[in-house]
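Hey, can you fold this one?
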Amino acid sequence: APRIKTRIIVAVQPDNKSDTKEQISALISDISAKGVSLDAKKQLGDKGEVLNLAFRVQLHNIEAMLSVKGIIRAVLDADSADAAKTGLIRHGIELQNLQPNDSVVLQSMIYQQMIENPHNLM
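Sure. Predicted structure:
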């Protein structure tokens, strides 16, 4: 799936069944219709854990709010070169069970960015 560079702030919550759901802010550094790379100041979970993500996207001057689930597929720990430079830990997230409307919004935003900002294509 085409992937573009972004800088979207996202609210992240673990998808556990406990009553205390800590919300953490993170940054989506790149996005595709199937997944995102999240950069955070601390590790958001372990591989295989499910996260709830809430973020806003701009689509032709219309703001859309997306609330999606994603599963952690990769964690680049603090020892990696990127984390040493930025102080952030990168997480590879696969989006799960997207609603049709959310999928259309994501794909439209990605294609819009590919046309308007081709230098952001990865």
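Helices lie at 81-86, 100-116. Let me know if you want another pass with a different chain boundary.
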